[in-house]
Specification:
The protein is 52% helix and 11% strand. The protein contains eight helices and five strands; from the N terminus they run αβββββααααααα. It starts with a helix and ends with a helix.
Length: 177
């Protein structure tokens, strides 16, 4: 998901039992005020299937959020928004604070600095490296054309090309010799 898609994700768009999230909106701060906007493209409006680890993380987030609500008491503003990811008093997250927290987590893990958007690239590269069909990766990313996916992630393809050669060898190798 894109940064704005995550910031705009609301619990009403999450189905933990069905292990899906539906991207309907993105959130942008315009003159400091949170505004729901359409996702980047028409294809960006999509429903994603979640791996079990993501469902577990979202369940943990839900519990953490309920604890934040109890601690905040009357200061809680989350009922107005219903965001999955919000501040400890239920207000929209500041994108620069999210980036700062990401950098801190990367440093603590001994990893190099990255842009938030690089997480999206990492996901696509991992999917392609695991032989997930490019068309499926395209749908996951919400790209409008498969050529965008293939051009952006072509660096992953040498591994797939070696695997294809190996598959051909497995079928043809003995009959050719």
């Amino acid at each position: 998901m894109r940064h704005g898609d995550l910031m705009g994700l609301r619990w009403e768009d999450v189905d933990l039992d069905g292990a899906t999230v539906t991207i309907r909106y993105a959130l942008q701060l315009i003159s400091g005020a949170p505004v729901f906007v359409s996702p980047k493209t028409d294809r960006s409006r999509r429903t994603l299937c979640l791996p079990a680890s993501a469902v577990r993380a979202l369940r943990t987030q839900r519990v953490r959020q309920m604890e934040d609500r109890l601690r905040a008491g009357e200061r809680w503003k989350g009922d107005e928004w219903g965001f999955v990811f919000e501040s400890v008093i239920g207000t929209p997250l500041n994108p620069s604070n999210v980036t700062h927290q990401l950098q801190g987590a990367l440093t603590a893990a001994g990893l190099p600095r990255q842009r938030f958007h690089d997480l999206r690239h990492c996901c696509a590269s991992l999917l392609l490296a695991q032989n997930v069909p490019a068309r499926v990766v395209m749908e996951q990313l919400g790209h409008s054309q498969i050529s965008l996916t293939m051009n952006t992630y072509s660096h992953v393809m040498p591994t797939a090309l070696k695997q294809a050669a190996g598959a051909l060898e497995a079928v043809l190798g003995e009959s050719v010799g």
